[in-house]
Amino acid sequence: MTHNGNPVAGTPAGAVRGIRDGSGEFYRAIPYAAAPAGAGRFAPPEPHPGWPGVRDGTRPSPTAPQPTRDFGRLDMTPYFGPGWVPGEEYLTVDVRTPAADGGKRPVLVFVHGGGFVTGSTRAALYDGRAFARDGIVLVTVNYRLGIPGFLHLEGAPANRGLLDVLAALSWVRATVAAFGGDPDNVTICGQSAGATLVGALLATPGAKGLFRRAIVQSGSGTGAFTPEQARRVTAAAAATLGTEPTAEAFAAIPDERLVEILPSLAGLDLRTSTATDPLAGLSQFSLVLPVQPADGLADGPAREVDLLIGTTTEEGHLYLVPQGNLESSTEEDVLALAAQVHPAPETAVAAHRAALPDASQGELRSAVLGEALFGAGTAHLAGAHAQISGGRTHVYSFGYRSTALDGRLGAAHTVELPFVFDIADEPWLHGDTGLLGPDPAPDGLAARMHATWVSFARTGDPGWAAYDPRRPVAEVFGTAR
């Protein structure tokens, strides 16, 4: 169907007009749930009431309320997108498809990262043209962030941002056939906070039947806060706002104020008698769960789901190099970080030192940080999934070192994204302050990595042997130079 020359997809909620280009069709800002306004910001997502006529899906969506984030000299705008673009109707998806026809194509649903407080479908890195070119329907998802999305509040359901992603998956199940996708062949994929959300979905009973495969890029199966940790964040937020720690009280506070107070929550000590801080102080928001996702897989769809999971080899560099802290780090800095994230800090540092005998203090600090944020939780999730799923787990490691910031950024957190989306040659990712640095991307790496994701979305086979915890071997992309 077309309307004034533009393609139109008919969905259960109403018709949507998109645009057609060289890679297929693009439909933007399609609501998968009602706008979360007022008290609705702290309620479960509700179905969208639908619309008459043909909805304009040619323009981008508003984004979830969020602060700006600064990574020093490193240009992270391709990752974070435009920041907060106000508008109530932001619980939306963008859909890239070869064609909104009857074709039953594999579907990849992508959940963005950003520390549970930033990010959106509008980020340039999530350009889905290469997926559409290769016969995949790509759906990117906005979800509630920060206080509306993840603050633990009396009178509100926990993990509202996760409930949003679950609602988006239900929307995909009911609607993606209208965009030429196969609702029985859905892969949920996420990076960073988005990957941690995907890990949680593997352990969520309500996610059963909504996806066949999952991809966890630089996430963690052990990144959730305990209820006690969540209560500390809630108490601090309520005290800063001068209000009660309830959904009813917070519903009266405008989004501007909820975003404004976020910097005042930085630096909270979330260590308890039973838990270290799984996010090392980098975010005051995470999932709040009684057990970690990696320990609760039997409760969710994990047993029947194919899993592709991995990390970069220098994850921690993103949080040290742009700020100038890789060179300035001291032995005391390394120990202080280890004390924040590890129950036996001296033992942890000694183990990293033994594995990296020539590392500087900054490199050691990066290794401790990367392992705490992503490495340990990824290994735990991979091992737990391999034990229950019978050969459905595939593990990778990404080692290509970006030459950004005078050649020092390395295989940092987020550097794999341009290769997955096959856009590593884009000029805006290069130059000394671009994510990939001044050097051209290595020949063939983006093509290989993107093809792996396409193959996995099609069949569940990325092209190498399943993971065996007794012989834990990972496929390597872009080995370190």
TrEMBL record:
GO terms for molecular function: hydrolase activity. SUPFAM superfamilies: alpha/beta-Hydrolases (SSF53474). Residues 43-72 are annotated as: Disordered. Transmembrane segments: none annotated. Its EC number is 3.1.1.-. Keywords: Hydrolase. InterPro entries: AB_hydrolase_fold, CarbesteraseB, Carboxylesterase_B_AS, Lipase_GDXG_HIS_AS. PROSITE patterns: CARBOXYLESTERASE_B_1, LIPASE_GDXG_HIS. The keyword Kinase does not apply. Residues 7-463 form the Carboxylesterase type B domain. Belongs to the 'GDXG' lipolytic enzyme family. This is Carboxylic ester hydrolase.
